[in-house]
């Protein structure tokens, strides 16, 4: 039987299989008012479908630690108790299906305040529920985006605190795993990469300084997240620049640091920090980055990016390239992918009693 259908235990949390759902923004919350950032029927149905489909772990979409940290005004958030209550409904359902509920905690940095992608995804200002974005340096992502406000050290510390508060709320909401969003050109990624971080203080310049904010966030989250529950970190393993930027070598070095700071798994993505970078996409194109971290560090890894076929996913695990696979768009197309893969490869995943006649 493929390892795809074997459980994995991280700290004291056992995940029933290795077919996982990565965070995918739904851009569907209210942009303002008492229901801002609050999950509702759509989110329950969306995550619920993947849960009844046999997925082992579901990482709820990028959830902002503050209103200004939202990628779009329609993002979910964890900055108040109304949000905690609403998330409980989702974690309760996922847990009842035997799925481990995880959540990605995020701050959008200089790429915050954009419209829903199906409306073009352009940066928006106050006239469309938007705001002025912040970043390590006053450098815009591209000509469409505004120049962000450079964060002061006090403001950086405040955001570290917001990550801790959001993690505390995620725990109260019933999540078993907290994932820190350090990828795709959002705030933490912006600090890591010399391409977007041009600071000359303790948060910029050397590798140690550029990784300081990320590690402070990890420490703050780890401090409030129970010993027995895992913390994940999502990274963009490369900026995909020919020369300079954040590189795969940096990722390997940083993975060792993350491990030393109590991170339990690296979710290995790439890109998003450099507008117009050439990315050679294709089936499993990011897997080699995960495989390198797995081979060269003690940190378990999950691979993501154009993994769509059962055989392909099984091979990634059999080759020892990753400990789990994440399927994004394929799970949007087929919420029961894990069940189909189990039938194809001769394995088993959780099937709700209500669906027993379809096993
Ligand atoms: C609609 C959509 C929303 C996404 N939102 C997020 C997000 O909230 N956080 C994140 O780290 N990645 C996000 N991603 C990236 C996915 O997690 C995943 O890494 C990417 O889609 C590549 O995997 P795939 O080829 O299996 O789709 C999103 C992708 C899609 C398609």
From TrEMBL:
<dbReference type="InterPro" id="IPR013785">
    <property type="entry name" value="Aldolase_TIM"/>
</dbReference>
<dbReference type="Pfam" id="PF00724">
    <property type="entry name" value="Oxidored_FMN"/>
</dbReference>
<keyword id="KW-0521">NADP</keyword>
<keyword id="KW-0285">Flavoprotein</keyword>
<dbReference type="InterPro" id="IPR044152">
    <property type="entry name" value="YqjM-like"/>
</dbReference>
<keyword id="KW-0288">FMN</keyword>
<protein>
    <submittedName>
        <fullName>Oxidoreductase</fullName>
    </submittedName>
</protein>
<dbReference type="InterPro" id="IPR001155">
    <property type="entry name" value="OxRdtase_FMN_N"/>
</dbReference>
<dbReference type="GO" id="GO:0010181">
    <property type="term" value="F:FMN binding"/>
</dbReference>
<dbReference type="GO" id="GO:0050661">
    <property type="term" value="F:NADP binding"/>
</dbReference>
<feature type="domain" description="NADH:flavin oxidoreductase/NADH oxidase N-terminal">
    <location>
        <begin position="4"/>
        <end position="345"/>
    </location>
</feature>
<keyword id="KW-0560">Oxidoreductase</keyword>
<dbReference type="GO" id="GO:0003959">
    <property type="term" value="F:NADPH dehydrogenase activity"/>
</dbReference>
């Amino acid at each position: 039987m493929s390892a795809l259908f074997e459980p994995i235990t991280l700290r004291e949390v056992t995940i029933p299989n290795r077919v996982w759902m990565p965070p995918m923004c739904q851009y569907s919350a209210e942009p303002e008012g008492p229901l801002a950032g609050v999950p509702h029927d759509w989110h329950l149905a969306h995550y619920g479908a993947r849960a009844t489909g046999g997925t082992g772990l579901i990482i709820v979409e990028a959830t902002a630690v503050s209103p200004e940290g939202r990628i779009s005004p329609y993002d979910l958030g964890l900055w108040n108790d109304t949000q905690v209550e609403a998330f409980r409904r989702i974690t309760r359902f996922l847990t009842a299906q035997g799925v481990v509920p995880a959540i990605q905690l995020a701050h959008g940095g200089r790429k915050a305040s954009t419209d829903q992608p199906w409306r073009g995804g352009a940066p928006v200002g106050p006239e469309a529920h938007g705001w002025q974005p912040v970043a390590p340096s006053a450098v815009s992502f591209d000509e469409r985006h505004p120049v962000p406000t450079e964060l002061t050290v006090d403001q950086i510390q405040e955001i570290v605190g917001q990550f801790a508060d959001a993690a505390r709320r995620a725990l109260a909401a019933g999540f078993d795993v907290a994932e820190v969003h350090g990828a795709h050109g959002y705030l933490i990624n912006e600090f890591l990469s010399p391409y977007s971080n041009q600071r000359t203080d303790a948060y910029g310049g050397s590798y140690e300084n550029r990784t300081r904010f990320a590690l402070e966030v990890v420490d703050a989250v780890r401090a409030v997240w129970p010993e027995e529950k895992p913390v994940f970190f999502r990274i963009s393993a490369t900026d995909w620049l020919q020369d300079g930027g954040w590189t795969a070598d940096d990722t390997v070095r940083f993975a060792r640091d993350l491990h030393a700071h109590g991170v339990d798994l690296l979710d290995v993505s790439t890109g998003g920090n450099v507008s117009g970078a050439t990315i050679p996409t294709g089936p499993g194109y990011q897997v080699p980055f995960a495989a390198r971290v797995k081979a060269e560090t003690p940190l378990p890894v999950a691979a993501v990016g154009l993994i769509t076929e059962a055989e392909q996913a099984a091979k990634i695990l059999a080759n020892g390239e990753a400990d789990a696979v994440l399927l994004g768009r394929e799970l949007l197309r087929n919420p029961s992918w894990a069940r189909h893969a189990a039938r194809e490869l001769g394995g088993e995943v959780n099937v709700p009693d209500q669906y027993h006649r379809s096993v």
